[in-house]
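Tutorial, part two.
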Amino acid sequence: MDYCTNNGATGSHGSAEPVERRIFQMYPVLFRIGDFEITSFGALVAAAALVGLWMFRRELRHSHLPESGADAGLAGVVGGMLGAKLLWVSEHLDEGPFLDLLFSRGGMSWFGGSAGGLLAAVLVIRAKRLPMTAVLAAATPALAIGHAIGRVGCLLVGDDYGSPSDLPWSVAFPRGLPPTDVPVHPTMIYEALALLPVAWVLVRLRRHRLPDRTVLGVYFVLAGAVRFVIEFLRINERVAGPLSVAHIAALIAIAFGATLLVRAGTRASLGSLQRL
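Running the prediction step on this input gives:
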């Protein structure tokens, strides 16, 4: 990934004063086969799905769960992508025609993806009469890793960046979604880097054979906390004081995770965490 600098440029998020631009060399299209484009975002989403499904199958085997549980993972991938895209489109209907937004090269909602993926997975788990909590807990490391890989795809198309910044690693996305000539926080990379240790913690919890409810609780608390903190650097519309819709969704996730931890036995869960 290459960077270059320019002086004196301004953009939609900046002032008229000269600023130094650190322009991210984006790769929205990896290659073309005739009129068919292979986009970087699509490739990274596919990679996230493949890696996530591989990890999920591994965790199912580790927990001696039926291999058919992987069908829930596949359903979660499809449901997550559909939910993420549809919610993002509904939030940006004032920016263009529905179909143009739907088939744009970026634009995914974290909350929509989480809700859509969870709903689809739950329906398959119920249909196959699998142990709900055990299968969902087995999916948590895959969810964290898949989410991290997907955020790299957001970087490559300049989607989901943050507010203007003068930090050394801030970059501009003149071909982003939307374009900006002003250096901003690359929040997609912040989130990807933060999710990697979350995935490691979840794997360690499972190797220490913590209760499935505890693993699920830790996932929701940590994933929600990561998004809640990073969201303060994003430029999403605030709907309740300093909070955006994603903030509220993150708080719901944290509260749900905390409830699971309490029901699993907080003292025992904290003791196991200290042994990691």
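The CA atoms of residues 2 and 25 lie 5 Å apart. In part three we will examine how such features are distributed along the chain.
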